Amino acid sequence: MDDVLPFDLSVLERARLSRDPRFDGRFFIGVTSTGIYCRPVCPAAPNARSRHTRYFGTAAAAHEAGFRPCLRCRPEAAPGTPAWAGTSAVVRRALRLIQEGALDGQTVTQFAARLGIGSRHLDRLFAQHVGASPLALAQTRRLHFAKRLIDESDLPMTRIALEAGFGSLRRFNDAFKSAYALSPSALRHRRGDTQRRAAAGEVRLALSYRPPYDWNHLRTFLGARAILGVERVDAESYARLIRTADGHAEIRVSPLPGRDALELRVRGAPAGALFQIASAARRMFDLSADPQWIADGLERDRLLRPLLGRRPGLRVPGAWDPFECAVRAVLGQQVTVAGARTLAARLVQRVGDPVVGTEGLTHLFPTPQILSAVALDGLGITGARITALKALAQAIVDGRIDFERPVAEVAANLKQLPGFGEWTAQYIAMRALGEPDALPGADLVLRRMAGNGRGLLSTKAMEQRAERWRPWRSYAVLHLWCAAADPTSGARDSRVVRRRAYRTLHSEPESKEAS
Questions:
Q1: I need a surface site. Which of 7, 102, 458, 484 has the fewest CB within 10 A?
Q2: Of the residues 53, 76, 99, which one is the last residue of a structural domain?
Q3: Would residue 197 count as lying in a domain?
Q4: Nearest CA to 397 among 413, 415, 373?
Q5: Predicted local confidence at residue 403, as pLDDT
Q6: Is 155 found in the same domain as 221?
Q7: Per-residue pLDDT tens for 114-128?
């Protein structure tokens, strides 16, 4: 059994024999008699004898041990679980970057330098916490994404190889045959014609998650903030225009009926962009969260326990682009959702790039380079906020703010800018950077709710109170914000707190740092 697994052998055996869906994606089963590795939910998994099974914390570890992916249960389709939960901050960041394709264009030495450590130390950390090397993880990621494109799209093999990060079709074919004992074309032939056809020029991908998943809350949250011309939210989907390396693309995300997955539709993306788009969508819709692990970490708190029961599938709504999120956070300081949305729409209409989209999608959100150079007067934005926006854009252009750096470093650098204090930095970390342990501790609603009827906590007391919520403070914050805004929750809050909470949830949260 792999040392990195957080379960003992008896738990793993019971999960395998019962095909318990709660463990899907949390570990993988290698069967030595067949040389294949499976998900715990695979129909074939209980048939293997115990002495023929090995357990791995990641698919990459199983692959590196010489096992091939099961074509029946499709390990590449397992719900995204942060296998690095509980590991060091360096490993968490490294895994996130690898999953987003960082090793596709860098050597391990260059990648380790980006993390601030040596390559040998990085290999040791991965062996200890993940059970596979960084290169093995990147290779497995590429193969799994290629397998999904073969199964779920009609893209030609040359395009699939490029999308999955392989430098040539030959390298792709060799790696795929080694992993699956089949050529990519032979595997597609086995698929038959059961795959749903996408519209011309469109790619569809299923993005799995571990249930429960509160789609309605997340859709409502994003809908309240949708910028006219950039985004569109209706009863069934979220759509927007996104900037690509040589133009733009249009995406649409909606639930897949009967499946624990969202469907991502991409139209107009250039070759090589699909994986980054899929990764951004997973982050925005918080699809890698494990609600059971989060509940296990928070339910010991008597204040949070009933809230977890009311909203078991709550996710932290993300943002497509960190710069866009930071701009919108500044625009939304101390205004309602309608006011924030109006200011963002005015900004986009003046300096966003106009494009030809569909169904009212007409503009791309402006880049830092554009925002740093244009005049923003006459839009209804206060002088202090214009100063903050200009400082943010210029800092990104100059390289002083790099959203790919560690979260703590990004937050510290943001706080050096006018109009950005701890509250705003933590809010950006929570929504834009996917940080599960962010804490906007100065938030008035949060401090009132955490006081649980005993008055407003000080910021220091709030931070101390939240220590027991680590490493899931972002989720605790969202549960308390939702409870404060919900008059039926039974939480101990006043009408004033509820009004403040409503502004927190239905506009960009309130801050006094730019005043």
A1: 458
A2: 76
A3: no
A4: 373
A5: 92
A6: no
A7: 888 889 999 988 888
Instruction: Give yes or no: 443 in active site.
Output: yes
For residues 280-313, b (16+ Cβ closer than 10 Å) or e, as one string? bbbbbbbbbbbbbbbbebbeebebbeebbeebeb
- Of the candidates 2, 24, 38, 482, the residue annotated as catalytic is 38
Containing domain of residue 402, as a range?
319-435
Whether residue 38 lies in the annotated active site: yes
Set 2, 24, 286, 443: catalytic member: 443
How many angstroms from the chain centroid is the CA of residue 76?
Answer: 17
Question: What pLDDT is attached to residue 78?
Answer: 85
Alpha carbon of 311 to those of 138, 164, 446, 479: distances in Å?
35, 36, 17, 8
CB 31, CB 68: distance < 8 Å? no
Query: pLDDT of 189-228, one tens digit each?
Result: 887 655 555 666 799 999 999 999 999 999 999 999 999 9
Residue 1 lies in a domain: no
Counting the structural domains of the chain, the total is: 5
Q: Catalogue the E-assigned strands of 213-312.
A: 231-233, 238-244, 247-255, 261-267
Q: Pick the closest to residue 96 from 78, 115, 109 (CA basis).
A: 115
CA 485 to CA 504: how far, in whole Å?
9
Summarize pLDDT for 314-328 with one digit per residue, the tens.
Answer: 999 999 999 999 999
Least confident among 32-36, 155-159, 247-251, 271-275: 271-275
Looking up residue 225, the CATH number of its domain turns out to be: 3.30.310.20
Give SS3 for 407.
helix
